[in-house]
């Protein structure tokens, strides 16, 4: 299952854009995803890559409704074919486990 990271950057002139990022995350929840919010990206897993364009479009439309005239969105897709079902948090746990092993 592909893992997708979104970085949505509303260009506003404001020092804080968290309310806009929160709206972007709400869109993902409304679309049925369980997003993982990090300090600079939001991560979801998808069954079908074709939903990504729809999600980005909806996020942009919602931020447009909030008065944002310029939005930069970066999307990173990790599509590993040899492991069809991957939970993003399991990847985090795997790294943390290896870090503990190295101590």
Compact summary:
The protein has helices spanning 18-30, 51-65, 88-101; strands at residues 3-11, 36-37, 42-45, 70-78.
What does this structure look like?
This protein has 103 residues and is of the alpha+beta class. It has a single domain, classed as Alpha-Beta Plaits. The chain contains three helices and four strands, in the order βαββαβα. It has a four-stranded antiparallel beta sheet. A hairpin with a 4-residue loop joins β2 and β3. α1 crosses α2. The longest helix has 15 residues. The radius of gyration is 15 Å and the shape is globular. The N and C termini lie far apart (31 Å). 16% of the residues are buried. The model has no long low-confidence stretch (mean pLDDT 92).
Number of helices: 3
Query: How many domains, as an integer?
Result: 1
User: Which architecture name does CATH use?
Assistant: 2-Layer Sandwich
Query: Strand order, biggest sheet?
Result: 2-3-1-4
What's the β-strand tally? 4
Largest sheet: 4 strands, antiparallel
Query: Cα distance, first to last residue?
Result: 31 Å
- Strand portion: 15-25%
Average of the residue pLDDT scores: 92
> What is the string of helix and strand elements?
EHEEHEH
Structural class: alpha+beta
Radius of gyration based on Cα positions: 15 Å
């Amino acid at each position: 299952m592909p893992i997708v990271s979104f970085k949505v950057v509303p260009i506003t002139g404001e020092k804080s854009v968290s309310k806009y990022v929160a709206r972007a995350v709400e869109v993902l929840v409304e679309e049925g995803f369980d997003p993982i919010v990090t300090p600079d990206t939001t991560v979801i897993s998808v069954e079908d890559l074709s939903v990504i364009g729809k999600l980005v479009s909806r996020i942009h439309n919602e931020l447009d409704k909030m008065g944002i005239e310029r939005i930069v969105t970066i999307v990173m897709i990790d599509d590993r074919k040899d492991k069809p079902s991957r939970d993003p948090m399991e990847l985090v746990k795997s790294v943390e486990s290896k870090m503990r092993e190295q101590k």
